[in-house]
Design goal:
single chain; 15 helices
């Protein structure tokens, strides 16, 4: 097998596990407090990430060259996770995934300001078209007129996650030049785990997000849901590892085009498990977003070749 094929296969497994982790989070809604789900996702991923970082870097597994960039990366990553996880509890998983995947549009919009990149006519066309697709999925008129059955907060969170993910993507471009991915993933999860742990101590587990049947007691007197939470952390660590590994084998331009497979995969599972049926506007809007993002990717490839 060629390296691109190996990388693509790893990436496809990464996409499936990403959607699977979102399914776990959605299924835990009403069972445990949201903060506990967030705690499990980061804290229980640490053991595997520590092992992977030790294997990759040995005694240098905690070495970071630019801490300010890592802290910014952790901030954007943490906020993005909170928004995505929260929206999963409020709106269909396929819609959350589609809106989150529109981040390429906002990366292009932010590039001139942050990376001093020029945007040509075709990319501007793709951005404007993509924004139209996002508006179709969100249906702001329906929200204003209160004819939409979707949670306006859930839509806002999913939309916001795409913007913060765009900021994350831009900072990762800088970090990739100076830091090892195993160390950055470990440090990010460690910082986030500490923040969540301190928040639970001072505010408890009910100050944000959907409340469930169980709070902190699920971590003290565990039942089957406790092991479900551990599994979420393991899946989360594998997601980060597979993403980093795929870039070692395949070209980034190939992987970016495959990322949009997450949208139909999430929509299919949403229909099978939760009977979530996308509206006509959501289908058309999703297709427009995918098309515009692929056009942006095509222009990026052409720019690199030139």
């Amino acid at each position: 097998m060629t390296s691109n094929l190996i990388g693509s296969l790893i990436w496809l497994f990464f996409i499936f596990l990403s959607v699977f982790s979102h399914m776990i989070i959605k299924s835990l809604t009403g069972e445990v407090d949201f903060i506990i789900t967030l705690f499990a996702r980061f804290v229980y991923s640490l053991p595997i990430l520590i092992i992977l970082a030790l294997i990759a870097r040995k005694t240098l597994f905690l070495q970071i060259n630019n801490w300010s960039n890592i802290l910014i990366r952790s901030l954007f990553g943490f906020v993005t996770m909170i928004m995505v996880f929260s929206s999963l509890q409020l709106i269909p998983i396929g819609l959350t995934t589609a809106l989150a995947q529109s981040s390429a549009i906002y990366v292009t919009l932010l590039s001139p300001l942050i990376l001093r990149e020029k945007i040509g006519f075709f990319r501007w066309t793709a951005v404007i078209t993509g924004l139209i697709g996002v508006l179709l999925m969100i249906n702001p008129i329906g929200i204003i007129e209160k004819t939409s059955e979707l949670s306006s907060l859930g839509l806002l969170l999913a939309f916001g996650s795409a913007i913060t993910h765009a900021g994350l993507a831009l900072i990762l471009r800088k970090i990739g030049k100076t830091e090892h991915p195993a160390s950055t993933a470990l440090i990010h999860n460690l910082i986030t785990s500490i923040i969540i742990f301190i928040s639970i101590i001072f505010f408890g587990t009910k100050f944000y997000g959907t409340q469930g049947k169980y709070g902190i007691e699920i971590l003290i007197l565990p039942n089957f849901i406790f092991y479900y939470l551990i599994f979420l952390g393991i899946v989360g660590s594998l997601v980060q590892y597979l993403m980093a590994q795929s870039y070692k084998y395949a070209e980034a331009t190939i992987l970016v085009t495959l990322r949009y497979l997450a949208i139909p995969v999430a929509a299919i599972f949403g229909f099978i498990i939760w009977d979530e049926i996308p509206t006509f506007n959501q289908l058309i809007g999703g297709l427009i977003v995918i098309g515009s993002c692929l056009l942006i990717t095509y222009r990026e490839i052409k720019k690199i070749k030139n």
